[in-house]
Amino acid sequence: MTLKTRSLPRLATLTTSGHNLLEAIIATGLFIMVTVALSGIWVMYGRSLAKSGEVIAANSLARSVSEGLVANGWEFLLTLDGVSPLPEKDVVVERIVRGRRADIKYNVVYEALFNKSSTLLDNRFFSEDICQLTVTVRWNSNASGKDDSDGYNAEETYSMMVYKKGIK
Description:
The protein is rod-shaped. The termini are far apart. The chain has two helices and six strands; from the N terminus they run H-H-E-E-E-E-E-E. It is an alpha+beta fold. It has helices spanning 21-71, 74-80, and strands at residues 89-93, 96-97, 100-101, 104-114, 130-139, 154-163. It has a four-stranded antiparallel β-sheet with strand order 1-4-5-6. It has a two-stranded antiparallel ribbon with strand order 2-3. The model has no long low-confidence stretch (mean pLDDT 78).
């Protein structure tokens, strides 16, 4: 005689595959919080990138002006001594930003100081054949939050020491 055993119904197993709804909600919430926190950093990165482009253009302009002044020779630099204020120049730099033309007007001012009567450097070590040439470039930056009354809210200064015997 054979005994028939009746099998009991199978209970659901404890191991399931996939994620439940609570885990999905928590993961989505964490993703949203991180994205919102990083969006502020992305905005600051964009502003600093725009500002750095303006500063690079201003620095290049200041360096070009100072090299042009030095290229005119020592005698020309002597004519700048004591001239106050030196003439200002407005220079427009053409740029393309996000496919659009975005010109910036830079204001350039330069100054030449000579080492007469030890005003710059001590005469014990340096002669009067030294000139400090300073070029200041100012502009109105959209990337900066500051606003000045004279219309310029950003400034870059380039200064160099020129030795008379170093110029032809």
